[in-house]
Amino acid sequence: METVADYFGSLVFNDAVMRERLPKDIYKALKRTVEEGKDLDINVANSVANAMKTWALEKGCTHYTHWFQPMTGITAEKHEAFISPMEGGKVLLEFSGKELIKGEPDASSFPSGGLRATFEARGYTAWDPTSYAFIKDDTLCIPTAFCSYSGEVLDKKTPLLRSMEAISTEALKIIKLFGTDAKRVITTVGPEQEYFLINKSDYARRKDLIYTGRTLLGARAPKGQEMEDHYFGALRTRVSEYMQDLDRELWKLGIYAKTSHNEAAPCQHELAPIFTTTNIAVDNNQLTMEIMKKVAERHGFACLLHEKPFAGVNGSGKHNNWSLSTDRGTNLLEPGDSPKDNAQFLLFLVAVLKAVDEYQDLLRMSIASAGNDHRLGANEAPPAIVSVFLGDELTEILDAIAEGKPVTGRTKEKMQLGVHVLPAIPKDTTDRNRTSPFAFTGNKFEFRMLGSSFSVAEPNTVLNTIVAKELKEFYGILSVASDFTSAVNDLVRDTYIAHRRIVFNGNNYSSEWVAEAERRGLLNLSSSPEAYDTLLSPKNIELFNEFGIYSSVELHSRYEILNDEYSKTIHIEALTMIDMINRQVLPAVMDFSGEIAKGISYKRSAMPEMKTDAENERLAEVEGLENYLYKAVKELEKGVALAADYSGASLAHYYRNSILPLMDDVRSYCDALELIVGQKYWPYPTYGEMLFYV
Ligand code: ADP
Ligand code: MG
């Protein structure tokens, strides 16, 4: 019988395949390029391309594509057949080194935030040899970065790679001071992915799901998630078959899909992979989302990745587990058991605290989207306030260091980092605060604010860069210290004292925390447009310039794209809602009220003294709501027309402040009607039908 080991990674041109198929010197040259981040020699590229082509053809491929991640957040590909014409009507199958390393998709339809207007219209894609090529739909996919001709980035991958370099450089300098040996420091990520599965036939009958990914209308079903019977519950057979099929497809692509379970809301599930190097984790997560949708089709499901597909039950997020490790496999966020390791660990820990405190705005910005705005602060996801959970043990240790007191249960003298051993920090007690946006979970941080449909590239670019910034500053202090041990001690203590306001171990869902956070001076950016506005502050522009992650021009372009994307999302939602109300809901309601009215007149003509109290009252109720709904949808139409007066960030704010409330009004009347209009009249599947299918 074929086992997982037989087909795991069978669709990936990975290290083992390269070792087997490339001439030894070529393999070595390629490895060196990857490890040292050098440019690829054309002769090496030709040889690699040839081996890749042969391998792909053997696996039945006919096409290749440069697979890239434009700023839309999804992946893009343009397929080219391997064929070249030959004399006598025959074909030659070709793929050169040049085609491997550089592609020229027509960039004009990807968002560039003004970059294309200012610079070259065209862009090119360049192979990222640190990420393996793979096969999808009989096509050889080559992971690439995407740039404009003048070098401005047009994708999410390039800045991420730059940020990984930056943090590697800075972290290396620090660990060398501690005498830790390594060539590279790698950031690792394990993104836990939430999603919904509903019947495809229901999906196909809802224009809102089709056009916007979420339900814009829909009354609560009699049952929601209050019984708490779904989380980790037994899987429906069809769902379990889906998950098995999905795992198999992901394993073939070398993705370590590891854990699957039911989530809190009905029809909600989660998939967690084993963590890996950040850029690979990003690629893998993009692929995972794509394959999730594709496999769903085969099983008669639609897979919903939107952050808030259904009101009233939990939405979906993505937990971004993040750590740093050396190329020798030492996790730098793992508390050590020697004085030296502990001091190094605490230094990295406070670097993260300082980074999160000083760049709360950027972290918040990196996860902002129209979809995610429905989750943050809604008692199901972290609030929009960024804070760090450390757990009681670590907090106690840091408090003791700050106050110069002995650490509980230890010797009476005060703790000296690099000299004394820390008390052990039990791993399992650090992970029990599910409400925290940024939690230390024993040997990694879990950034929990991400939306389910997100590319994890941007949040990790920010995270890597802000931590690199703090490490660089630390190095400046430590590298000139005369007494290294006490300098580390002072630095940890002073940094913690200066940034302890960002630490919060309590319930992030409580209203007390909102007040407390305000008292502490923490930011509370409740909507995406507000969060986007922080991107261009001088301190943030300086940060990205300093590490060569984004130039000012690139940041301005991002800002434009983010606002644009937000406005377009709400615009489409508003138009979809107007369409559904005008062409589906109002006609259904009118039919229903017409039937009641007819019924009353039939009864009366048959027997004038017959009682029609129920009909009269229901009719009045329906008529009342129907008229409110009609007026509300007219207001929404007017509001959408007025959007023409705005542009850029002001348009995004307009959609947020003026259109969303109008949509809420429409929804409230429509949902009230849904609860009293006859079932057979209602034009699309209800929450109950979608979420509790059999
Ligand atoms: P949960 O958050 O549900 O308790 P786990 O603790 O099992 O889940 O782990 C969640 C994710 O964290 C997994 O994807 C796992 O691979 C990842 N993870 C574990 N260690 C690291 C690490 N050092 N760096 C990045 N991610 C990690
Ligand atoms: Mg988690």
Features:
globular; alpha+beta; binds magnesium ion; 694 residues; 23 helices; binds adenosine-5'-diphosphate; 18 strands
Give a quick summary of the entry:
With 694 residues, the chain is an alpha+beta fold. It has 23 helices and 18 strands.
Characterize the structure shown.
By secondary structure, the chain is of the alpha+beta class. Helices cover 48% and strands 14% of the residues. The chain has 23 helices and 18 strands. Strands 10, 11, 12, 13, 14, 15, 16, 17 and 18 form a 9-stranded mixed sheet that branches. Strands 1, 2, 3, 6, 7, 8 and 9 form a 7-stranded mixed sheet that branches. The chain has a two-stranded antiparallel ribbon with strand order 4-5. Helix 3 crosses helix 4 (42-58), helix 12 (339-358) crosses helix 15 (457-478) and helix 20 packs parallel to helix 22 (648-674). The protein is globular, with a radius of gyration of 28 Å. Bound molecules: adenosine-5'-diphosphate and magnesium ion.
Give the helix/strand layout.
Elements: H1 4-7, E1 12-13, H2 15-21, H3 24-36, H4 42-58, E2 63-67, E3 79-81, E4 83-86, E5 90-93, H5 97-101, E6 102-103, H6 115-118, E7 123-127, E8 133-136, E9 139-148, H7 157-177, E10 185-199, H8 200-203, H9 207-212, H10 237-252, E11 257-262, E12 268-273, E13 276-277, H11 278-298, E14 301-304, E15 317-326, H12 339-358, H13 360-366, E16 388-389, H14 392-403, E17 438-440, E18 445-451, H15 457-478, H16 484-499, H17 511-520, H18 528-532, H19 538-546, H20 552-606, H21 613-642, H22 648-674, H23 687-691
Parallel strand pairs: 2-9, 16-17
Antiparallel strand pairs: 1-8, 2-3, 4-5, 6-7, 7-9, 8-9, 10-12, 10-13, 10-14, 10-15, 11-12, 15-18, 17-18
Helix pairs in contact: 3-4, 7-15, 10-11, 12-15, 12-16, 14-16, 20-21, 20-22, 21-22
Bound molecules: adenosine-5'-diphosphate (ADP) and magnesium ion (MG).
The site of adenosine-5'-diphosphate has 16 residues, from strand 10, strand 12 and strand 15.
